[in-house]
């Protein structure tokens, strides 16, 4: 896409630290997510269940276009909190960038419904087969609370403290900015 004059606007404004809060909240949630070790066989089996040939270039599990990335079927983070779902072989499907971005917080089923590919039914069956062999249940907030109460409490405390410090830094930045740009006293 060609660049027009107006695109400069996003740079000409105040950038706060707190406007990145979502990114940090995601990092705190993501760090709790479980993950599988890489196993070519496990990935190949999962891809076959999705109806794909693991030996060739992969296709988007939603629309069938060439895949460019891996989509988490169940998001790791929901509403800023860890969902219990992780970076697992049976939680990652090949995806084109468009589907990966546009699916957003929608479930895989809802996204297929919105997309309505001609072979929607077959794709739903593929997903169901793929997910039916999920080897590990997601763990929940309650699981974490029961198994690691003190650690989780401290973890949440640290997160709150990080956000508090980010806010304090924003307030200081506002003072520094206004003083530095004030007319200079001479003499
Ligand atoms: Zn797609």
Description of the structure:
With 187 residues, the chain is mostly helical. It is built from 7 helices and 4 strands; from the N terminus they run ααββββααααα. Strands 1-4 form a two-stranded antiparallel sheet. The chain has a two-stranded antiparallel ribbon with strand order 2-3. 47% of the residues lie in helices and 6% in strands. The protein has a domain at 34-160. Helix 2 packs antiparallel against helix 5 (120-132). Strand 2 (77-78) and strand 3 form a beta hairpin. The structure holds zinc ion. Zinc ion binds at residues 60, 62-63, 65, 95-96, 98-99. Zinc ion binds next to helix 3.
List the helices and strands and how they pair.
Layout (H helix, E strand, L loop, with lengths): L20 H10 L9 H10 L19 E4 L4 E2 L2 E2 L9 E4 L1 H7 L4 H8 L4 H13 L8 H7 L1 H33 L6
Antiparallel strand pairs: 1-4, 2-3
Helix pairs in contact: 2-5, 4-5, 6-7
Zinc ion binds next to helix 3.
